[in-house]
Amino acid sequence: MKSHGLEMVGEQTISQPKIKDYGESVNTLGNLSGGTDDIDLELGNVITATVSTSAQTFTFSNPPETGTAGSFTLILTNGGMGTITWPTSVKWEDGNTPSLTASGGDILTFMTIDAGTIWYGFLAGTDMS
Predict the structure, then answer these.
(1) ∠ Cα 84 86 88 (to 5°)
(2) What distance in Å separates the CA atoms of residue 2 and residue 46, rounded to the nearest whole number?
(3) With the CA atoms of 34, 36, 105 and 41 taken in that order, what torsion angle do they form, in degrees rounded to the nearest 10?
(4) Count of alpha carbons within 13 Å of 81, Cβ hemisphere only?
(5) Closest to 50 (Cα-Cα) out of 120, 91, 100
(6) Whether the model pTM is above 0.85
(7) End-to-end Cα distance, the chain
(8) b/e per residue, 76-86, with b = 16+ CB within 10 A?
(9) Which long-range contacts (CB under 8 A, 24 or more apart) does 40-49 make?
């Protein structure tokens, strides 16, 4: 990471920062044609994808270590047009996988504190088109 000429290597602890303006890296998966696609947190914490088939499976990789909270936002287009298989580690509110929009966009958020052993999944917005 480079900031104003200062280069930081590896994981660093920053105490009491005041952030005025920031951005997050977007990992664009693009148009998914079925099968299995990985959401790799090392490639960005905001992910965009479009489902274009009746069956799609997601996996999650490279979460932070246990004791460090990690999260990502998935902006998913046409997620309800077929069957999406989420990792078994995802825990949804009341144990129910949310219904997604067949033709439009949904926003989902996932969070872990134990290196991905459990991912808490939330439907943050539906039919956001």
Answers:
(1) 145
(2) 20
(3) -160
(4) 16
(5) 100
(6) yes
(7) 34
(8) bbbbbbeebeb
(9) 41/70, 41/72, 44/72, 45/71, 45/72, 45/73, 46/72, 46/73, 46/75, 47/72, 47/73, 47/74, 47/75, 48/74, 48/75, 48/76, 48/77, 49/74, 49/75, 49/76, 49/77
Provide the residue ranges of all domains of the chain, joining segments of one domain with +: 25-125
What is the number of residues in the chain?
129
Backbone angles phi, psi at 21, to 5 degrees: -145, 130
Position of tokens 């664009």? 28
**Partner residues linked to 59 by β-bridges:** 38
Check if the beta carbon of residue 76 is closer than 8 Å to that of residue 31.
no
- Give residue for tokens 């309800």: 80
Coil, strand or helix: which one is 79?
helix
- pLDDT tens, position by position, 41-74: 999 999 999 999 989 999 999 999 999 999 999 9
